[in-house]
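Figure 3 (text version): structure tokens given as input.
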């Protein structure tokens, strides 16, 4: 080296410095990117469990749960009914571990109420991991869902999510517990991180020649994975990123893609479970899907955005979710409702909003759920909104719901002919209904309405 000309020695020093700086930059970039990726992966798993717990808690009858806990027996029909709901939650979401409810938190212990595998009797004491105790206590006292993050117990490494189970008075009576073992995911991340460091070290040797290409090859898939994980956390389960890498990064990408697909299937499955629960409360089988299809037909005429159409479809399926809190005796009453009973029924839009606003995956439906009984002239309920202060999706659904109701038999009257029902829509445009929505509905051929609503022309 000393025998080389000074300019060449300087060139070598500059080259060595560039190589060192490039190696440091590659290693630091990889470390920061993988730390961020690990955090996003943990949030994705937590988000998955939290959404499952939130949606599942809506299916658990809080009043019935109180009765089961008070009876302290596992051989009653009421216990069997609640257990079937938990089994359905577990099977719908393909969970490997039991789903259960907990009550009576006392420091480091709680008590089992209902468990999907039936192996723990009502009232059995359950020792809580230290990481669980403050979160479970907050869920039961404040009535807010939460998840633990990653913790280690004697049986493995876990993430647990809790959601409050509420009775008809809105009181929290238990916590629905959903567990997920994360050992495999963390092991995969650790292996990926170790191999990444080895690959980065080898890449640093060639950084002087191919630094830019190597950095692009390493960081671009990681950035794509971060974007995919962010989309999962924010609820965009249909997010798709093509990752062509065949190394550990590609493997991790496949894991996240499978997670996104699983979340999407879980979201749709739980929506269908809620729809079936509504149909069991009195909605005719298939009527909610007809309402969703008819709403989509009108939304196409009005050129709504894809996001608005999805929100309208979800709202049509779940518009009467608040009726879960209406006593069945009132809901199924064959004759006219008494004034106090009518007041109860008219609260179902607000109750529906209260139920769904705790589940981020279902919040797009809130406008329809809360506004489908508002009237264009302000005489509707629950808030007496007028004109375009009523959300557009709610105005569309109000027209579709009214047309469907008029063209099907009810206990107190026979179905109207479709032509007569369309005429009533026209007469009430500007009063009960948005004139623009009515105009769009009237431009749809009657034969098409008859096909979608399954009614007579």
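Below: residues designed for each position.
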């Amino acid at each position: 080296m000393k025998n080389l000309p000074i300019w060449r020695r300087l060139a070598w020093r500059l080259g060595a410095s560039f190589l060192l700086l490039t190696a440091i930059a590659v290693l630091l970039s990889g470390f920061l990117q993988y730390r961020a990726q690990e955090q996003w992966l943990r949030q994705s798993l937590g988000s998955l469990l939290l959404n499952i717990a939130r949606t599942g808690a809506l299916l658990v009858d809080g009043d019935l749960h109180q009765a089961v806990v008070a009876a302290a027996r596992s051989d009653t029909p009421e216990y069997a009914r609640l257990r079937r709901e938990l089994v359905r939650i577990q099977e719908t979401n393909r969970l490997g571990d039991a789903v259960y409810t907990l009550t009576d938190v006392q420091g480091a212990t709680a008590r089992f109420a209902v468990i999907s595998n039936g192996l723990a009797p009502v009232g059995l004491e359950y020792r809580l991991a230290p990481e669980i105790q403050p979160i479970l206590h907050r869920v039961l006292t404040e009535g807010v869902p939460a998840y633990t993050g990653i913790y280690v117990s004697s049986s493995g490494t876990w993430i647990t999510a809790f959601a409050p189970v509420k009775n008809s008075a809105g009181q929290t009576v238990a916590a629905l517990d959903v567990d997920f073992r994360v050992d495999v995911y963390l092991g995969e991340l650790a292996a990926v991180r170790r191999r990444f460091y080895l690959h980065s070290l080898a890449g640093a040797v060639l950084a002087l020649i191919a630094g830019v290409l190597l950095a692009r090859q390493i960081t671009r898939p990681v950035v794509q994975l971060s974007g995919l994980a962010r989309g999962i956390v924010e609820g965009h389960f249909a997010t798709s990123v093509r990752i062509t890498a065949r190394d550990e990064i590609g493997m991790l990408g496949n894991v996240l893609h499978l997670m996104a697909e699983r979340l999407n299937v879980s979201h749709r499955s739980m929506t269908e479970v809620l729809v079936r629960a509504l149909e069991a409360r009195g909605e005719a089988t298939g009527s909610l899907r007809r309402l969703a299809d008819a709403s989509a037909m009108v939304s196409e005429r009005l050129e709504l955005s894809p996001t608005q159409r999805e929100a309208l479809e979800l709202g049509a399926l779940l518009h009467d979710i608040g009726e879960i809190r209406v006593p069945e005796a009132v809901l199924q009453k064959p004759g006219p409702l008494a004034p106090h009973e009518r007041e109860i029924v008219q609260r179902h839009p607000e109750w529906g909003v209260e139920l769904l606003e705790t589940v981020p995956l279902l919040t797009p439906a809130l406008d329809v759920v809360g506004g489908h009984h508002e009237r264009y002239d302000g005489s509707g309920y629950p808030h007496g909104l007028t004109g375009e202060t009523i959300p557009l999706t709610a105005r569309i659904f109000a027209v579709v719901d009214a047309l469907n109701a008029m063209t099907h038999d009810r206990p107190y009257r026979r179905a109207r002919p479709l032509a007569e029902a369309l005429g009533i829509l026209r007469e009430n445009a500007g009063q009960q209904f948005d004139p623009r929505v009515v105009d769009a509905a009237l431009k749809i051929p009657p034969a098409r309405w008859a096909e979608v609503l399954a009614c007579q022309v």
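The chain has a mean pLDDT of 82.
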